[in-house]
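testing teh design pipeline on a random one, pls ignore if ur not involved
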C-alpha cells in the first residue's frame, strides 16, 4: 500500500517541496499549498485560494525558484513577479487554521509550522480587504490570517 505521507516525504527530499492541490467534491480546485518548505525552518509554507491548478503551480514554481535563490517572503508584504501582471500580498495563516491542511500537519507532526497565505488582486489591483474589490475576488479567497 502506498502511504501518501511517505510519498510526500520522498518528493520533498528529491524536489525540496511538494504541492498539494485540494479540490471540492465536483473536482473544482479550492486551494493549493506547499508541503516541505517549512522543514528545518527554511521558509513558511504557502497557500493560495481561488486559482486553478495550472495557475497555482505556476505561482508556486516562481515562489520556490525565488526561495531557492535565497529570498524569504514575509507576511504583510507585497511582491511582484509571482503572478503575471499582478502583485501578490502575503498574510500569516493563524495556527488553528493550519490544521485544515491535514497532509502538511501529518508531514510536520503538528500544526505548529509557519504558513503564509498568498492573496491576488482583482484586475484593478484591489485585494480582498480593499474597498471596491470585485466581490468574486473576495469570495474566492477566504482569509486564514491571524485574528480572522
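output:
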Amino acid at each position: 500500500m502506498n502511504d501518501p505521507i511517505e510519498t510526500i516525504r520522498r518528493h520533498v527530499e528529491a524536489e525540496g517541496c511538494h504541492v498539494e492541490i485540494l479540490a471540492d467534491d465536483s473536482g473544482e480546485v479550492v486551494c493549493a499549498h506547499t508541503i516541505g518548505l517549512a522543514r528545518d525552518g527554511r521558509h513558511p509554507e504557502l497557500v493560495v485560494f481561488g486559482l486553478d491548478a495550472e495557475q497555482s503551480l505556476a505561482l508556486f514554481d516562481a515562489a520556490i525558484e525565488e526561495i531557492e535563490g535565497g529570498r524569504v517572503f514575509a507576511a504583510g508584504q507585497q511582491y511582484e513577479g509571482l503572478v503575471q501582471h499582478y502583485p501578490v500580498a502575503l498574510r500569516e495563516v493563524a495556527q488553528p487554521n493550519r490544521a485544515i491542511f491535514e497532509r502538511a500537519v501529518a508531514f510536520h507532526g503538528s500544526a505548529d509550522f509557519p504558513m503564509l497565505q498568498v492573496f491576488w488582486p482583482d484586475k484593478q489591483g484591489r485585494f480582498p480587504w480593499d474597498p471596491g474589490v470585485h466581490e468574486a475576488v473576495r469570495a474566492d479567497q477566504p482569509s486564514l490570517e491571524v485574528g480572522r
